[in-house]
Amino acid sequence: MSKNETNFQFLERFDKRVARLAKQAEKYVHTDPDSCMFKLRLMVETMAKKLTGLQMRGDISKDLGAMLGALERSGALPRRQADTMHAIRRDGNAAVHGSPTPVPTAMRRLGEAYKISGWFCKMIKKGSKIQLEAFDPPDPPSPIDQHTQQLHGKIDELEESIEQRRLATRESLLMFGPQEDVKEVTRRITEELCALDNVAAAAGEPTIDADFVALVMAMDLEQIEEDPRHGGDSRTAKREAEEQLEGIKKHLAEREKEFLAERTFLLEQRNNA
User: Fold this and answer.
1) What SS3 string covers 25-93?
2) All domains of the chain, ordered by start, with CATH?
3) What's the whole-model pTM score?
């Protein structure tokens, strides 16, 4: 792709602000990946606010994580798009708080932002026919040396492994349903999460995203507890679900920090070479 081309030109017809943020992120992906993530996070926040205004009623929190959670619970935001938007939010927040963003991470999120942009256009303008071509990664301003290529390869492998683990964990949590025994399912899932942690630790990699797990388990545990066959009321269900989730969320948040530390370590290796 030449420096004057963009993957996001089609967005101009639907939302000029989203289009501008996407193009800015695309421009910075090689030269300033942190700024790329800032722009992508703001792009996702702008999308979420637009969708909230169109799809939902009532006073919705302006916090991006809360907005995405509310949109997902309402059915306005499918799981796949929610996962992508949470991933961009998470890495954007990390960049804001000083965790350096590798180019492969920024490029991965830019490609994901491209995919959800087509879905976003269809949501804000019903009947829109959007046929996205394959994402065309922007070329670096200058050739990349072999050492940098190797570093990028390691970072890409790390990113892919963590994405697959998050996906697998989230899918495993979808087994919750009204017929399930709450304590047994919670015990089984907790054991699976600990096993995944052990595997990841042995491989020197962190595990899954706390927000994803908390969101899915909160929704499903409350549904189970509120079922008449369990004899619980909604207030008790919510309190018990929150108590169970707090420990898991705290644990997973710590593991997420280890993932960011691993990514930072790889970048420091490059800087010290």
Assistant:
1) HHHHCCCCHHHHHHHHHHHHHHHHHHHHHHHCCCCCCCCHHHHHHHHHHHCCCCHHHHHHHHHHHHHHH
2) 10-134 (1.20.120), 145-273 (no CATH)
3) 0.66
